[in-house]
Amino acid sequence: MQKNGRKEAEPVFDGASHGWKSAHINKSMAIVKSINLNATGGVPKHPVPSATIRMNGLEGDKQKHSNHGGTDRAVLLYSSERITQLQEHKHPITPGSVGENLTISGLDWASLEENNILQIGDIQLQLTFTAVPCGTIRDSFFDYAWTICRDRWCAKVLSEGIVNVGDEVILLT
Engineered SS bond to 123: which of 76, 90, 105, 161, CB 3.0-4.6 Å? Predict the structure, then answer.
């Protein structure tokens, strides 16, 4: 079925309730693949199952450099698919190794724009700008080709909450 240009799941028979229901499985659904932080600052950031996101970033996460963090770059986001592509080209990148707090899977990364708003549970994040590559992430790339990492997104926190691995990520605007 098509609705508003988007493919909707066909209804399915639910044997347990003996009736038809809508299938809410969307294989293109975006999710939080990894939550990453480093209590002492810097990279790599290490995976955790959940975290509280505050206006100034993830509780328990620190930055080593004064030009990292702040209101407009409280949370750093990166694409799980992009990490996979880089790994296929033999780069030793892993989730969290380029400093991202949230590694997201299933989002059309190329279509993201400044001021887009992402909803993750009660949390709303507004994309502010892409992060300039920093030499601290050089170990995630062979031949120190870290300058190719130009598509990490900084985000401002519009509403706080708890994020869990596997949470749905919705692009609102």
Answer: 161
For 12, residues 6+ apart whose C-beta sits below 8 A from its C-beta are: 20, 21, 22, 23
For residues 141 and 92, the answer to whether their CB atoms sit within 8 Å is: yes
Measured torsion, CA atoms of residues 173, 96, 129, 141, in degrees rounded to the nearest 10: -130
What domains can be seen in the chain, in order of their start residue?
A: 28-171 (2.40.33.20)
CB 73 within 8 A of CB 96: no
Residue with tokens 């970033």: 57
- The number of residues in the chain equals 173
| Local structure of 106: helix, strand or coil | coil
What tens-digit pLDDT sequence spans the chain (173 residues)? 433 443 344 444 344 434 443 333 334 599 999 999 999 988 999 999 999 999 999 999 976 555 555 678 899 999 999 999 999 999 898 999 898 999 999 999 999 999 999 999 999 999 999 987 777 777 887 776 766 778 989 999 999 999 999 999 999 98
Q: Can you read off the two tokens belonging to residue 13?
A: 């028979």
